[in-house]
Amino acid sequence: MRDKRGGILGFVAFILPITMFILNFTLTYGLAEYAKSTLITAAREGARTYAVTHSVEKGKESSTYIVQNTLLSNLKYFDPANDVIISGEGDFAVAVVTYRVPVAVPGMMRLVGIKETMGGYLPVSASARFIKEIVKEASPAGGDTGA
């Protein structure tokens, strides 16, 4: 009969860390993909709102509303003042929204080639562009010049 006294040591030393890495990576990647999906929606809504209303503030409000009501709205992860950028590029309305996904083990992402981690966060961003709608100019009062 073989001696099995070292069997658990092999499991703890090799299998458990690999299992924990896979579990941690899967959870972090899932959170990042969920955040990316939400950010795409927020960027589209912000750009669309700006394209229709021509108001940067309203565009920021609509993007911020979606992120804060879907993801964690802690300022460590999402700061609307810095993480929502609404701008106009000629005939286009552009929105860029950024979010920081928390990473349980910061160095873990570097093992799989992701070097963008900042401390304990993985930055995720999305952008959208819409064509601005034309604003009709108001006609002067009593401007009916019909004969």
Task: Outline the structure in words.
This protein is 48% helix and 19% strand. It is α+β, with helices and mostly antiparallel strands and 147 residues long. The protein has one domain (7-131). A 3-stranded antiparallel sheet has the order 1-2-3. Helix 1 (7-53) packs antiparallel against helix 2. It starts with 6 loop residues before the first helix and ends in a 16-residue tail after the last strand. The mean pLDDT is 84.
Approximately how much beta-strand content do the residues carry? Answer: 15-25%
Given the helix and strand composition, which structural class is it? Answer: alpha+beta
What's the helix count?
A: 4
In N-to-C order, the SSE pattern is: HHHEEHE
* Shape category: rod-shaped
What is the mean pLDDT?
A: 84
| Cα-atom radius of gyration | 25 Å
Please tell me the total number of domains: 1
Order of strands, widest sheet: 1-2-3
Please give the number of β-strands: 3
Distance between the termini: 113 Å
Largest sheet: 3 strands, antiparallel
User: Which percent bin holds the helix content?
Assistant: 40-55%
- Low-pLDDT stretches: none
Helix and strand layout, with pairings?
Layout: H1 7-53, H2 56-70, H3 80-83, E1 84-89, E2 92-102, H4 108-111, E3 121-131
Antiparallel strand pairs: 1-2, 2-3
Helix pairs in contact: 1-2
In brief:
This protein is an alpha+beta fold and 147 residues long. The protein has four helices and three strands, in the order H-H-H-E-E-H-E.
What tags apply to this protein structure?
147 residues, 4 helices, 48% helix, rod-shaped
